[in-house]
Amino acid sequence: MRLNARPLLTLALGGTLLAAAGAQADRSEWPESFTMGTASQGGTYFVYGSGWANMIADELGLSGGGEVTGGPVQNLALVHTGDIAFGMTTMGPAADAMAGQSPLAPGMVLDNVCAMFPMYETPFSITALASSNITSISEIPDGARIGFGPAGSTSDTYFPAILETLGVDFERRNGGWTDLGGQLQDGLLDVIAFAAGIPIPAVSQLEVQSEVNIIEFNEEELATTLENFPVAEFSIPASTYTTLEEDARAVSMWNFAIAGCDLPEDLVYEATRLTMENNERMQSIHRSAVTTIPENVVHNKVLPFHPGAARWFTENGYEIDPALIR
């Protein structure tokens, strides 16, 4: 069944009418509803993913929403099995999944996962209460209780290994970001090691209630981390948090939205189009979406692109290696 143009033209996105391509989409095999896998409440994935799902559902006339998950590693597995249609992941866990090295499915290649569009970089940052007197990574005391986010998340997968490589001795704790922020404030944790898009809601909330230290990597720690892990150098702008007086040195991984490779091409095309053509609306969902722009499609060298997503990018002049199209 094909939709005529008139009903679609009643749907506006930020005051802009849906493009004619949306009216021609073949919806005969579209699901009536969809789920977007995010991460724990209090993190950027949850805010970004839930907002995106609501936008796409509204604009395409579907039922859809975000779902709390364990984050990027679990999202890859859930999309692969078809338990969720869409998800969000970082390039490190994606590379592991494609190599059959996912900690959730050792030995299984998770190859029913396709890239849709670039989201933002995930900085790896460390926060402690100012009262702890921890102002650098080297000052984290032996046996420190460190919260690494949900089990299986990007933060939990990579941050413990990074800190071990930098000589930190710690007790590993897991949980949602909001919960870990509360534990830090209550003295049940010494440090939280975040891997999440900035500003991290849990950190912003902590700043309102307590004095905090946002701890950066020194030059030697940065060089060691870059040498040993699939991350890039990153600078957290001072404007991100009221605590920061100057930019903070960190590392990051790129995030991409993902989709089941067997989803209808027109559905993924429309979801990609709406996202890429409405960056102002995306930024109203979360500030990190300032980098949710087509030019950043080049940062995926790991996952195959869904043919629906690849069609939008190539139609709009963005080159994608044909070998990376499913």
UniProtKB/TrEMBL annotation:
CDD domains (UniProt xref): PBP2_TAXI_TRAP_like_2
One Pfam short name: NMT1_3
UniProt cross-references to Gene3D superfamilies, sorted A to Z: Periplasmic binding protein-like II
Highest rank taxon of the organism: Bacteria
InterPro entries, A to Z: TRAP_TAXI (IPR011852)
Keywords of this entry: Signal
Signal peptide (residue range): 1-25
Presence of the UniProt keyword Signal in the record: yes
Keyword Flavoprotein: no
PANTHER family found in the cross-reference section: SLL1037 PROTEIN
Protein name: C4-dicarboxylate ABC transporter substrate-binding protein
Organism of this sequence: Bisbaumannia pacifica
